[in-house]
Amino acid sequence: MPHRIRSLLLATLLAWAPFHAGAAGCAKPEYPRASLRNMEEGITLLGFLIRTDGSVGDTVVLNASGHPALDMSARDALSKCVFKPARRNGEPVEQWVPVAYKWWIDGDQGMNRAKRDALQLAEARDVGALYHLSLLYAATARTDADRDAALAGLRSAAEQGQAHAMFELARRYDKGDGMPVDAGEALRWYRQSADKGDVLAIQHLKNSAHAH
Prior knowledge:
Low-confidence stretches: 1-5, 11-21
Order of helices and strands: EEHEEHEEEEHHHHHH
């Protein structure tokens, strides 16, 4: 009996962004057959540049799932979506937004296979896998221990130089998400993330400068 497949477009990860993850005009990504045979699971974290008409102008992979076929399927399908654009002073504006796509096979809602694979790579000093592991714990968290593990993995990935982990840690300090608000630490991590080329960090600093 073939495995029943589930995949889920997660809500945008940035609470501050005036963006809603609802999308129209596109089909959801198909689970690649080879990935299904190999029981590959994970979370693809993408960045989309949403134009003022809601179409996607550019895409980047903010963090990979560990399986290129999954990342390619998510990127190809979701880049055809039409999203609700951000607005500033009532007018639509072009803006980068993060979109996460979660791939998992029924019977493994805890995504334990993906966690096992990410852990093996993280132990081999793959910082992208370490950040992926933190995303997996966050997406499947049921206990405070799970949430603590997600935050610990995020912080470790940021400290080891994963650009988007730096951005997410900055956002948490900025908004008091799971930790006390600390504007100084937030700015420090935003700047480090931007220096690494993270498009969302660059955008945030630019918007902050214009606001002042």
